[in-house]
Structure formats: C-alpha cells, structure tokens
TrEMBL record:
Stated name of the protein: Fe2OG dioxygenase domain-containing protein
Lineage: Eukaryota, Amoebozoa, Discosea, Flabellinia, Vannellidae
InterPro entries to which the protein is assigned, alphabetical: AlkB-like, AlkB-like_sf, ALKBH4, Oxoglu/Fe-dep_dioxygenase_dom, SAM-dependent_MTases_sf
Cited Pfam families: 2OG-FeII_Oxy_2 (PF13532)
Transmembrane segments: none
Organism of origin: Vannella robusta
Positions of the Fe2OG dioxygenase domain: 61-183
GO molecular function, one term: oxidoreductase activity
C-alpha cells in the first residue's frame, strides 16, 4: 500500500512511498530495525534481484526495498543515504519514465553533475558514489538532455563536425525501486568521514578542536607580530603610498565633488537649526572648533569648511597635499 509522509508545512513530501522488509524513517533518516508490517520484499521482485546477483551488480541479497512514485514536477532533496542505516551496495531501478538526477561531492556541493536515468535502467551506488556523493532530483516537468552524436560525418566527400544536440524530455509518472541492505549494528568505517553520521565528531569535540585552532593561530600571530607589522608597512609603501604619489594629479581630477551629506555636516549652523535636518543631535560647526581631516587627499572636504573655522588636513601622500594646496582650501593648513 502507498503511504504519503508529511515532514511539515514548510517541507512536505508529496510523493508516495512503499516500504518492504524494513521501513525508512524520514524524520530521523534511519531505518526501524523491527520488521516492517508491510512484510518482506515481494517475490515478484526476486527475478530482478537474481539477475543483479548474476551480473555482479550486487553481492548480497537485499533485505529492504523502498518504492517511490514521482509525478511530473516532483523531486527529492539532494542527500547521501545514511551511512549507519544501509550497507555499501544501493541499486535504484527506474520504471515508467526517464528522469534527470544531479550528483555532487559532499565536500564540493556547488559543482553538480547531471546524470540521465532512462526508464528500465539501474543506478548502482557503491564505494565513493554511495558514501561521498549526494544525489537528488530537481522538481520540474522537463529535463534538458544533451545527446552527443558521432563526432564527424561526411557529405559529398566533405567532413563536417557534428555538435551535441539538446533535447527537451517531458517527465511522466516514474516509479523507482531502491534495493538496499540494512545495517544491523549501525556501524560504519568508511573512508569518507565528512558525510558519515557515525564518524562525525560530537559538538563538544568540534568546539574543543576549534578553540585549539584559534589558540594556535593567536600564538603564531603573536610570535610573528613584529615581522607582520614590518611586512604591512612594506606593502603599504609599495602598493598604496607609491600609487598615490605617482597618480596624485589624475586621482585628484576624479575626486572633485564632495558628498552632499558631508557638505551639509560641515556647514556652520546655529543652535536649534537641527530640528529639520537628518543630524538630529548635531548643531553644526562652531567657529571656535579645530577640525582635523585625516587622509584629506586633495582637500575637497576642507574646501567645504568656512574660512572662519580652523581646520588641518593630513595625508600620507605628499603629492596629494600639493594638489590640495594648488586647488585652495580657504586658507586651511
């Protein structure tokens, strides 16, 4: 019989499933070790299993079967079958419709590889593909399939290159038969600990390891602080100071208009004038203030300050200060 599991309002599993042998628990991503009420794998599938055993596709008799029904537009989230739940060999047989499936390494999930599953085909996951690669089906009604014909063809004695052709394939109702063997001891010693739910470190161990790494980095930085400061000054001289010294005139020509908000901020205001302006707790510049512009460049903001206010500008680039004096700064230093 079909059952339809619902994860929750935000993540409903709309497809229908059947379980035989053991039931897979979608809430915990593990198998219930008690024999499922649906019974063992039906005898009708035994000839298919025997054929897979004969061909060497699998080496052991499966004891768990999950049947999924995929209607057009339905899919399944990308995942790795739980390591502690199933043994190495997993076979999924596609019936009824072709379908595109996406694979990606657990460690490189942005790089996806599309695999086209024709109907009446078997997808076999063993070793790395079973333990380290995620697989999933995107929810859509059509699949774009690239068909690669022969590399070249000849017409009238002239050789022509043939380019891959993209075909749009409509999805129909698809049934997948997934044969697996349940782990009874819930142990896994695979070579891929990243996606392994058995070998993954507990949170407190992860936190301890992260703390140790942080302490090591701090020690390294402290030991090399003088060297780091010297290197920083060297990089600043070579890539900052020298640039501005060389390009001061050109840079100044591209920095001629002050930002409006800063111009308004530097305007002399009377107490109480701030009621209708955006600087709510600011009454403007007083004429008895001393204003410092650190990194003044060509002095474009010094020129916004009234000459009645004392202002001093400094910059690491002497040539930019020359530009500032040439452009004039209302007698500011």
């Amino acid at each position: 019989h079909w059952e339809q599991r619902i994860y929750g309002k935000k993540n409903p599993m709309k497809r229908r499933v059947q379980h035989y042998g053991f039931r897979f628990n979608y809430e915990t991503n593990t198998t219930d070790l008690e024999p499922y009420k649906g019974g063992v794998i039906p005898e009708i599938f035994q000839p298919m299993i025997n054929r897979m055993l004969e061909l060497g596709i699998i080496s052991k008799q499966p004891d768990q079967l999950t049947i999924n029904e995929y209607m057009p537009g339905q899919g399944i989230l990308s995942h790795v079958d739980t390591h502690s739940a199933f043994e190495d060999e997993i076979v999924s047989v596609s019936l009824g419709s072709d379908c595109g499936m996406e694979f990606c390494l657990f460690s490189e999930q942005k790089k996806k590889i599309g695999v086209y599953l024709p109907r009446c085909s078997a997808l076999v996951l063993t070793g790395e593909s079973r333990y380290a690669w995620k697989h999933g089906i995107t929810k859509k009604n059509f699949d774009h399939v690239i068909c690669k014909p022969q590399d070249t063809t000849k017409e009238a004695g002239i050789e022509h290159k043939l380019f891959p052709e993209t075909i749009l394939c409509k999805r129909e109702r698809r049934i997948s038969l997934t044969f697996r063997r349940v782990r009874k001891q819930k142990e896994c010693n695979c070579a891929w600990p990243g996606p392994c739910d058995v070998q993954v470190q507990p949170k407190h161990k992860k936190a301890g390891a992260a703390k140790q790494i942080t302490e090591n980095l701090v020690n390294i930085l402290n030991e090399n602080s003088e060297r780091s400061e010297e290197l920083g000054r060297k990089l600043e001289r070579e890539h900052v100071v020298e640039f501005y010294e060389t390009a001061a005139a050109h840079f100044s020509r591209t920095r001629h208009s002050p930002w409006p908000n800063i111009s308004r901020f530097l305007t002399v205001r009377k107490p109480g004038d701030n009621e209708n302006n955006e600087f709510h707790d600011y009454d403007g510049i007083d004429e008895d203030m001393l204003i410092g512009d650190i990194g003044c460049g060509n002095g474009k903001y010094l020129r916004c300050i009234p000459s009645s206010v004392t202002a001093i500008g400094t910059d690491i680039s002497n040539n930019l200060l020359v530009q500032s004096r040439e452009l004039g700064t209302h007698n500011h230093d």
